[in-house]
Amino acid sequence: MKGIAASKGYAIGRAALLSTSEIELDRTRASSVEAELEALDKALAESRIQLEAIRDKAAESIGEEEAKVFDSHLLLLEDPEFMGAVKDKISGEKMRAATAVSDATDFFKTMFESLDDDYMRERAADMKDVGHRLVRNLLGHGEGSFKRYDETVLVAHDLTPSDTAQIDRNTVAAFITDIGGVTSHSAIMARSLEIPAVVGMKTITETVEEGMWVVVDAIAGEVILNPDEATIKAYREKKAAYAAEREKLKAYRDVEIIDESGRKILVAGNMGSLKDLDLILENGADGIGLFRTEFVFMDRESMPTEEEQFEIYKEAVTRLTGRPIVIRTLDIGGDKQIPYLPQEPELNPFLGLRAIRLCFEHEDMFKTQLRALLRASAFGPVQIMFPMIGAVGELKQAKAIVESCKAELRAEGKAFNPDVEVGIMIEIPSAAIAAESLAEEADFFSIGTNDLIQYTMAVDRMNPTVSHLYDPSNPAVLKLIEMSIQAAHNAGIWCGMCGEMARDPTVTRKLFDMGLDEFSVTGSAILELKQRISGYLK
Ligand code: PEP
Ligand code: MG
């Protein structure tokens, strides 16, 4: 059966169905409103104690970040609208407390679900989890239970965060569920616990029987029911090989890569939104080499305010706990558009009003972002990066705008790091060729090979009919990269790479030999890259 691989790995074990006894609600009128309100208070207190214990346990076994979901559960217990609705039902409609909680939960859950927003849908799941806990406590029901086998594969319609936090990785080899997606809390926790999970299997709870042997292939997102001996053997081998590979890679999580000359090489992560940070941090990134902030602007109806941007950048900086974070200013135009900033049609959008050029046209928008970035720099080592710089004049112009934002913030008494590093992408051939002069004005370079290759080879990066001409190893491309790195080093600044080429194993050695200081790649590629580069040091 097919599903979605939510947490990678393999497991071979016996199916244990999570039993959550059906709760029967009493819909007759309550005989005493006071008694119901008192019962509600008691259940609230009990729930609070349980949730605090689960949160502490989760913080210890899974991580502070994942444990935060239980803080939001605790807040829901005090939510005036939710509790107000429950109490109104008890006092006004003489409902029994459990029934009132259940109805109010359903109401808010349905409301959250109807909003077309992933975040609100997650809140719906939290609502359901908290509501169930309260109802169970009011009626004296225990938590869901399941049988333990030597290797248990937990099967459930859905797993709430509370259920997931109770899972012990020593007793549960994997879990599979009918519903859920990659970003559901239970999927995130499964990844942190490194328990293989396949979710969104639709009808697995109806198909699988208690105690049945199952193979969970949470790489392919498949579950095999009643596997034969040969299948079991094949998967035991896959599982062992996977575990050995993971173990080897994990050893690189905290490895610092320093070559014999004392040069430190960073392997950093590329992010588009805060959601990407979990995976990046889990994989031991030395920092963020590219935060593509246009994604902060894209999925919305109106321009994010300075405050909204500040909160996002600040959270990213804070979560990096002292590691550097390169935040790139807006790169809109080309293939990326924002609905509330319509652009005139262009014959060659990739050669048109894109990135820094567009920001110069909309200076207010640019300044709003720069102010938010500067304010975030008070919380950690932010490095501001401009995209699509083609000439020194553009860099000087952008830097002058940064200085004017600093002056404004200073006058307003708002905190920022006055020495915040300001660097540029090298992604236009003219920038690589003029790298010597740009290096005098920039604090760092990051080579954007996705565009650099397209502009050097005159090959549209989006056009599949010419993609065979898009060649990272072309000598012209390599030469521009080498020139950029050397110009940076001659000027005493660092040079990284944040285009896809940074994770291409066929060129890692070349880039290392050229002296690249930082490789910035997608989260899942970090450990392998750390392993590969570490191998060059011996
Ligand atoms: C690049 O051009 O290599 C790059 C990293 O930027 P983007 O892919 O966002 O254009
Ligand atoms: Mg680019």
Folded structure, characterized:
The structure is a single chain. The protein has 538 residues and is of the alpha/beta class. The protein has three domains: 99 residues, Glucose Oxidase, domain 1 (3-Layer(bba) Sandwich), CATH 3.50.30.10; 107 residues, Orthogonal Bundle (Enzyme I, Chain A, domain 2); 284 residues, Alpha-Beta Barrel (TIM Barrel), CATH 3.20.20.60. It contains 21 helices and 16 strands. The strands form two sheets. Strands 9-10-11-12-13-14-15-16 form an eight-stranded parallel barrel, surrounded by six helices. Strands 1-5-4-3-2-6-7 form a seven-stranded mixed sheet. Helix 15 links the parallel strand 12 and strand 13. Helix 1 runs antiparallel to helix 2, helix 2 packs across helix 5 and helix 17 packs parallel to helix 19. The radius of gyration is 27 Å and the shape is globular. The two termini are 45 Å apart. The structure holds phosphoenolpyruvate (PEP) and magnesium ion. Phosphoenolpyruvate (PEP) binds next to strand 10 and helix 18. The site of phosphoenolpyruvate has 10 residues, from strand 10 and helix 18.
